[in-house]
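Request:
You are asked to prepare a plain-text protein record giving the amino acid sequence and the C-alpha cells, at your earliest convenience.
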Amino acid sequence: MPHSAHPFIAHTIAHPRLSVRDARLRYGRRQALDGVSLDLAPGEIVAVLGESGCGKSSLLRLVAGLEAPDAGEIRIDGQGVAGAGRMVPAERRGVGLMFQDHALFPHLDLLDNVRFGLHRLPRARGTALGLERLRDVGLADRARAYPRTLSGGEAQRVALARALAPDPKLLLLDEPFSSLDPGTRERVRADTLALLRSGGTTALLVTHDPDEAMGFSDRVVLMHAGRIVQAGTAEDLYRRPASPRAARALGPVIELEGRAGAGRIETALGTLPGAPGGSGPVRVCLRPEAIRTGAPGEGRPARVVGHVLGGAGPRVRLAVEGIDAAILVPVPAGALPAKGATVGLRLDPAGAHVFPAALDRTGP
C-alpha cells in the first residue's frame, strides 16, 4: 500500500524521565538540530539512529549539558535543565556518560577510575560501591590493574561501571561499541544491555548501526538533517517505514520502480497487490527476505552470478532482466543453487514497502 510523506512524530509520556521539547542548535551556518522533541520513560532504553551529521550526537550533548540549546527546553524528572533562561551544569544533572573511546584515566587503577565520580561519598563507601560496580561487569579481580593492561572490551566494561557508579537518572551512550571488533562488540553490547535491564536504567543510545539500534532498545528514533523523521519500536520501523530513506536506515533494501494499476503493482521482480483504484508510478523497497527463490518457471526468471557465504547466512547474487545491478537474496541452508543456474523469483508482499514515486532518494 502506498505511504504518504511521514509527518514529524512526537512521542509523549505522562511522567517522563527525560523530556526534550523543540530543541534547536546551530553551528555557524549548519542547523544541527531543527525542532527535536523526545520523551523517555523511566527504565526505557531508546536508540537514536542516523547517518553521520544527522544531529544525533548534538542531541546527546544538549541532554548531557555539554552544549546549550539555541531554543527549546530539556527537562529531567520534570525539572528544567536547559532552555527558558536556565542552564544546569553537566555535573548537576544526574546524567552518566559512556563514549566509544572509554576515556579512562591512564594514571588511575580501575577502582580509582570507577570511584572518580564518587568523591562526595566517604572513602570506604566509595570503595565498596566501586568494587560492586566492577563486580557487576566481571572485573572486580582486576581492581588494582591499570587501563593499559586491558583489552578494548574490558576497558569499555570499566567505562560502563564508572558511568553507572553514581546511580545516574539517565545514562547517555555515544557510539559506545563502535571501536570494538565484531565478536567483542556483540559480547560487550549484550552484557551492557543485561546490566541496564537488571538495574532499570533509563538510557539514550546514539548509533549509526541499525542492528544495534534494533537489538538494544525499546524504541528507535530515526534522525535525518537535524530532525526526527520516524520513531517507534524496531518492528514498527522495520515493517512500516515511513519513507524510502527510513526503509534503508533499518537494513538493506532493493529499490525498484513500479507501476500501480488495476489493484496490483508491476515490478521487474514480480507482481505485488496494490491499493484499489491506485494508479501510476511508485517506488518499491523490498527487504531481501521478501524475495523467494524457486524452480525455473516459478515467477520471474533470474540467473545466479555469484554466492556469498557466512555472516547473515547463504545468499546468492542474481541477474534479472530490467535491473541494472545484481541483487543479493538469502536462500535456505542446503539449497544453494549453482552458479549459472536459472531460478524463479516470487515476492512476499509482507516485506514490500511501496511509496509514491515522488518520495524518491532525496525524500525525508
User: Anything to note?
Assistant: The CA atoms of residues 206 and 299 lie 42 Å apart.
